[in-house]
Amino acid sequence: MVLLLPTLASAQPKVSVDAPLLPLARAGAYTPIQVNIATTDPLEGEVRVSFGNSETPVVRPYRVGRSSVRRVSVPVVMPNWVPELHVEVTRGRRTLATHTLPTVSGSGGVDELHVVAVGEEPLGLTLLRQVSNQPIVGHAGCTREDRDVRVETLLPTQLPSVWFAWTSVDLVVWRRPDPSTLTPEQQGALRDWVHSGGTLLVGVADGYRAWSTSSLGALSGVDFSPAEASAGATHAVLFASGAAQPEDAPALPRVGLTMRGATPRLFDGDQPFVADHAVGAGRVVTLGFDPGAGELRGMSGAFDREAFWRKLLGLFEDAGTSPLLAMAGPPHQRQPDPCVGGASDWNWTGETAREKRETWRTNLEAALSSFTRANPLPLGTVLLFGLIYLLLIGPIDFVITRRLGKPMLTWVTFPVFAIFFSIAAALVISFRKAGNTEVRCVEVVDVFDGHASMRGSGWCAMWSSRRQDVRIPVPRGAGVVVGSGGAGDDFLVRDEVEALAGATQVGLGYRASQWAVSTWHSAWVDRLDGGMTVRATGDGVVVAANESGLDLDEAWVVWGRSMWPLGPLPSGARAELKAPVAFDWGTITGTPDSPNVEFDDPDYHRTMNEHHRWDSSWAMLLDPHTGHVSRLPKPGASRAPFLVGRSKGGVAPPVPTNDSADVEAFAIVRAPQPNLSSEDLP
Fold it and tell me: Alpha-carbon distance 412 to 30, whole Å?
């Protein structure tokens, strides 16, 4: 036995737990908990993450092969006011390891600016400790207090491998990026996060080829030319950041950039060396210099590092405006401001844009969950049943027993009538409420031409007519599903719902009650082989083409106060734009099969002109900053046309894995057309 002890000890699995993004965890967003398991024998069990309160734990099964090492990533939705996480790794009933991870106490940094610096921290980034007097896009607390800024430095090996694990982060800054240090999964996660709405800033220098030749390099939208030192670049950086101009400024090594879809933001003479590129719903800012260069470090007296990052990121001053042209951001006040209400073009009713969006989403969930069979019986039906029951146990019972001449027989007739009535009532209710599981979904899908990607957000409701275990996966790409609760009851109590965590997806598992309504929402990112384009031909005809693989029942090109009908536009089809008509949001949303689902408020929009109707409807339908992840303000660009279509069958409704489920889905598909000129439209 003594000789066997070293062997038994060496056979014990080794477990370690890491959560590099936990300091940036944001309430309601996903944070990956990474569990590393090394074992000599085959091993399988569960990883359980609990919060020390009534919140439902997250449980993920794992399996590790013989003589293997595996990293198990458990995406966790962070609740509010959780001081720590408890991670337990089990094998059957045996506990292999337990870890306690401290979190940032409080509301989970909802209104903070969260930044990740990959590898080395850029010059002075941590000096940006607060954002004054403005909401953080996507996390707009409207108290007008200063927002804290959190900066965390991560090694490339610590970056997540799924895009939605980045959703607690607003900005990723990468000095001298070398994508070869990342796994293909990590590169794909970073790319998909940008497509979903994230902001990535890379500072390239003499090693720019490592970035430009990688699969991520195309996100910059530029071609690179060899680096050279230039005092003009130093002066341009100092001027743009509002710093004084010293006479003996050192020459800053910088890389030349040739635009391939990006927008130049800062010039050395006529040579741009800072560019901003819209990628999907997000953006990539490329600096043609190292933001931690020694030449900048040596000017500590003349160089305001905090102002440098404020201007670079387009963060506004206390007054809400930026007096100088930001290197990568709008030089004007952000519009609309989600915290400003009143009778404005944006908010006719006085509600803020944020409140209007929340009201729309609340009304949408309520409309989706208004299943006819879930509603109580009509009052008239209930009163009729009550009258019949009273007649049975009163006059009818009296007449029957009197005619039989046996008044004491009421001890028999009364319970018979009661039992008969109860059975009849149960049959009527079952007839009205029984049937297949029903699911309704409304989706908003953005198709990004030129990036071979799309993203979607969906809101769903399910009517369960029986007790059953239901699994709700994500049917497209890598994405998440989050439960929203029951409809007017306590259906989703503890242990009634669990998060199903996989390697690239997260779903929900319901222990559905009988005659209960559950709601959830989802988000996903997927690749596309083609897109949706609108091009002007040489003979003055404007043609729309759909190569996305998505079939549209109806489609329009929308710009300002007009819309150009296209008719049905299935995948692989082309259509010419017809004569324009006045914009009508109700025409686009149409009337879904369920009359209870309302997508717009006609009374509200009758008081506004078509131009502002489009703005408000667009924001209420889905704010791109809050649908997936947040991002810094996108550079102020002119209003661009959109190809908008609807699909009654949906695009990717996350439906239960239940063969007897009846699914009704409705999707609105949007495809921006940045290359279409207003002069080309008929």
Answer: 63
Mean pLDDT, residues 418-436 taken together? 73
Report d(CA 329, CA 327) in Å as an integer.
6
Q: Give the Cα separation of 453 and 398 in Å (integer).
A: 75
Could you tell me if 142 and 337 are in contact, meaning their C-beta atoms sit under 8 angstroms apart? Answer: no
User: What average pLDDT does the segment 386-410 reach?
Assistant: 77
Q: Which amino acid is at 127?
A: L
Q: Are 61 and 500 within 8 A, CB to CB?
A: no
Nearest to 63 by CA among 41, 34, 48, 85: 41
pLDDT tens-digit series, residues 624-673: 334 555 556 654 444 678 899 989 888 988 888 776 788 888 888 988 88
Assigned token pair, 582: 């006045």
Give the β-pairing of 147-154 and 94-102.
unpaired
- Separation CA 293–CA 233 (nearest Å): 12
Burial 329-364 (b: 16+ CB within 10 A, else e): bbeeebebbbbbbeeeebbbeebbbbbbbeebbeeb
Q: Whole-prediction pTM value?
A: 0.82
DSSP 8-class letter at 136: B
Q: How far is CA 666 from the centre of its chain?
A: 19
DSSP 393: I
DSSP state of 181: G
Higher pLDDT, 472 or 342: 472
